[in-house]
């Protein structure tokens, strides 16, 4: 891919989208104006964007709950919009749309097939075992999983954007994306 990028004709454009960081440096191309890097954070919908996207599909009360769960993830907002429009404009019980979003087959299929299945078995087990925690540190991860190297695994998950994020204002603490964590806890109940 790096060689392809270097050899592109002047009038050619190539868009590369990846959850994981590219295995080569783009810095020189970015500085030279021939490449742009759009981080995952820039792709998240803020509350105003989510409200515009979900207009006429959800109430403002529902929006707050859905946005808290979706955390701006466009795929989750799309599924939510589709679910809401299927149900029609009739009022829904509190959290009904959020519950439907958590149990929808589309995010489940994405998490199982696109996130968990490609992981090595040891890492997948590590991810599942940590789902009982709301917040994670490397020490807690190693203790709970009885697996040395928890810090390296968490770093890899973070680098590959596998639905893990820092906890606001608390360095070294991480958490799963709310929908991913809910999926893990529902799919793999702990004994």
What's the quick description here?
By secondary structure, the chain is mainly alpha-helical.
Structural write-up:
The protein is mostly helical. It is built from 12 helices and 2 strands, in the order H-H-H-H-H-H-H-H-H-H-H-E-E-H. It has helices at 2-7, 27-31, 40-43, 47-53, 60-70, 74-87, 96-103, 105-116, 121-130, 138-145, 150-159, 178-187, and strands spanning 164-166, 174-176. It has a two-stranded antiparallel sheet. A hairpin with a 7-residue loop joins strand 1 (164-166) and strand 2. Helix 5 packs parallel to helix 7, helix 6 (74-87) crosses helix 7 (96-103) and helix 10 (138-145) crosses helix 11 (150-159). The longest helix has 14 residues, at 74-87. The mean pLDDT is 82.
Element layout with pairings:
Layout: H1 2-7, H2 27-31, H3 40-43, H4 47-53, H5 60-70, H6 74-87, H7 96-103, H8 105-116, H9 121-130, H10 138-145, H11 150-159, E1 164-166, E2 174-176, H12 178-187
Antiparallel strand pairs: 1-2
Helix pairs in contact: 5-7, 6-7, 10-11
Helix fraction, binned, reads: 40-55%
In N-to-C order, the SSE pattern is HHHHHHHHHHHEEH
Poorly predicted tracts of residues: none
Category from helices, strands and their pairing: mainly alpha
Overall shape: it is globular
Order of neighbouring strands in the sheet with most strands? 1-2
Kindly report the oligomeric state of this protein: single chain
Average pLDDT taken over every residue: 82
How widely separated are the two ends? 44 Å
Q: Total strand count, please?
A: 2
Number of contiguous helices: 12
Strand content: under 5%
Please outline the major beta sheet: 2 strands, antiparallel
Radius of gyration: 19 Å
């Amino acid at each position: 891919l790096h060689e392809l990028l270097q050899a592109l004709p002047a009038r050619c454009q190539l868009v590369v989208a990846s959850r994981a960081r590219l295995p080569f440096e783009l810095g020189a191309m970015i500085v030279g104006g021939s490449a742009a890097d759009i981080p995952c954070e820039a792709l998240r919908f803020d509350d105003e964007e989510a409200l515009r996207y979900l207009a006429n599909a959800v109430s403002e009360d529902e929006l707050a709950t859905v946005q808290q769960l979706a955390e701006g993830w466009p795929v989750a907002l799309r599924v939510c919009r589709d679910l809401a429009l299927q149900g029609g404009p009739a009022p829904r019980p509190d959290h009904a749309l959020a519950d439907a979003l958590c149990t929808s087959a589309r995010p489940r299929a994405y998490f199982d097939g696109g996130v968990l299945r490609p992981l090595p078995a040891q890492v997948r087990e590590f991810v599942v075992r940590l789902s009982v925690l709301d917040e994670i540190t490397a020490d807690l991860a190693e203790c709970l999983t009885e697996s040395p190297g928890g810090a390296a695994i968490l770093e890899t998950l973070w680098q590959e954007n596998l639905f893990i994020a820092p906890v606001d204002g608390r360095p070294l603490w991480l958490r799963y994306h709310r929908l991913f964590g809910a999926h893990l806890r529902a799919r793999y109940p702990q004994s």
